[in-house]
Structures are given as structure tokens and as C-alpha cells.
Design brief:
Its EC number is 2.3.1.181. Pfam families: LplA-B_cat. Strand 1, helix 1 and strand 2 form a beta-alpha-beta unit. Helix 2 crosses helix 3. It is globular and about 45 Å long. With about 230 residues, it is of the alpha/beta class. The protein is built from three helices and ten strands, in the order βαβββββαβββαβ. The N terminus is likely disordered. The strands form two sheets. The protein has a seven-stranded mixed β-sheet with strand order 7-8-9-6-2-1-10, with helices on both faces. A three-stranded mixed β-sheet has the order 4-3-5, with no helix packed on it. The relative contact order is 0.23. Helix content is about 25%, strand content about 25%.
């Protein structure tokens, strides 16, 4: 696998990269909200890209239907959060690389459909670098390889500041997806890069994601310890 350098773009705006390990969902959610609020108050603050993994957790979009859960959310069971992103239920777990871009779309393009397609483009380019042929499915959001959904996207945009983002299944235990109808799509299986590239690990994909994100959004990645 190729691990590209972060491209340096002429006159590109900086984007802080917060490259974390495994972080509880509620903690990452709180950090996102803080970063978004800071950028509402001070729009000149730089964009941010958070890359991390989560312990096992299910999340529901703002208007997601409980019928897509195969367990009783009123009973003690899997960790579950209803959050302000769009989309239906999804599952996060170790082995899945999650990206949370906190972008001011006034610097980019004030168009939500454009933004969704750009996130898909990032994932498609990552797959290409890994030697895989990814694809879109008309009328749906996300990326697929050989009919299996390997990348999911769910966003929230407020005053043109983005939060939530994308999840790329690198080498997760896919069993957890069996407890839901992923993204409310019953007839399309969930897959992972590991099914096509045995032995692949999340840390080998992080640099590729950061590089392709920089290229697609025209930013300069600046590593940060914040």
C-alpha cells in the first residue's frame, strides 16, 4: 500500500489534523460541538479534520426510525445515541476509521450536495490508492466495493459549519452491523477493506485519508496536538 505525503497546495487554507486513537463516542461528540461553536463565534479559525476510532456504539440520525434497530433500545444493551446528523442508524467500532471534518463551507462551497459528493470523492480516492475500485450508488450516499457498502456518510451543517462526517470500514468486526438495518438499507450488505485486502490496518489508511482529503478540499494539512 502507498502512504502518500500530505500534498502542499498553493495558497491553500490550513486544516488542523487531530489524529487520535480510540475515543468514546460521547467524548468525540462533545469535542465536535465545542469546535463548531468556536467557529461560529470566530469564523476565521482554521478548519479541522478529526480522525479516530470508536468503541462499539450505535448512532441514530435526527429523524432515524427505531424500526431499523433489531434490539430494544429501552432495555440495557448496546450503547446508543441519537445525534443531530442526517441519515438512519449506523454502527461504529474499532477497525473503522471515522472522520469528522469541522469545515467552514463559506471558504469552500455553500452547497450541501456538493459537500456530500466531496466526502464520497475522498473515500473513492482512498480506495483507489489502496488498489480497489469504489463506486457510488445513484440516489444513495456512501461508497461501495463489489456491491458492499464500505463507507458511510452522515453530516450536520449549521451556519455553514460542518460536523459529523464519514466512516470507512477498514478492518472492523462486522458482526455488530447485524443488530441493525445499516443506514436503513435492507438489501445491500456492509463490507470492509479487509475483505479485499487481507491484513490491512487502520493506521495504514490514516495518512491516505488525510492526503486525499487535502487534495479534494484544497487545504493544507497541519498536524495538531490540540
Amino acid at each position: 500500500m502507498i502512504s502518500p505525503l500530505i500534498p502542499q497546495q498553493l495558497n491553500a487554507q490550513p486544516c488542523l489534523l487531530l489524529n487520535w486513537g480510540q475515543v468514546p463516542y460521547s467524548q468525540a461528540w462533545e469535542i465536535q460541538q465545542k469546535l463548531v461553536q468556536e467557529r461560529r463565534d470566530k469564523p476565521d479559525l482554521p478548519d479541522v479534520l478529526i480522525l479516530l476510532e470508536h468503541p462499539p456504539v450505535y448512532t441514530l440520525g435526527l429523524g432515524a426510525k427505531l424500526e431499523f434497530l433489531k434490539f430494544d433500545p429501552s432495555q440495557t444493551g448496546p450503547e446508543l445515541h441519537r445525534v443531530e446528523r442526517g441519515g438512519e442508524v449506523t454502527y461504529h467500532c474499532p477497525g473503522q476509521l471515522v472522520g469528522y471534518p469541522i469545515l467552514n463551507l463559506r471558504r469552500h462551497q455553500q452547497d450541501l450536495h456538493w459537500y456530500l459528493r466531496q466526502l464520497e470523492e475522498v473515500l473513492l480516492r482512498v480506495l483507489e490508492v489502496c488498489g480497489l475500485k469504489g463506486s457510488r450508488v445513484p440516489g444513495m450516499t456512501g461508497v461501495w466495493v463489489d456491491g458492499c457498502k464500505v463507507g458511510a456518510i452522515g453530516i450536520k451543517v449549521s451556519r455553514w459549519i460542518t460536523m459529523h462526517g464519514f466512516a470507512l470500514n477498514v478492518c472492523p468486526d462486522l458482526a455488530g452491523f447485524g443488530q441493525i438495518v445499516p443506514c436503513g438499507i435492507p438489501d445491500r450488505p456492509v463490507g470492509s477493506l479487509e475483505q479485499f485486502i487481507p491484513g490491512i490496518e487502520v493506521d495504514r489508511v490514516r495518512a491516505i485519508v488525510a492526503a486525499e482529503f487535502a487534495e479534494v478540499f484544497g487545504v493544507e494539512i497541519v498536524r495538531s496536538n490540540v
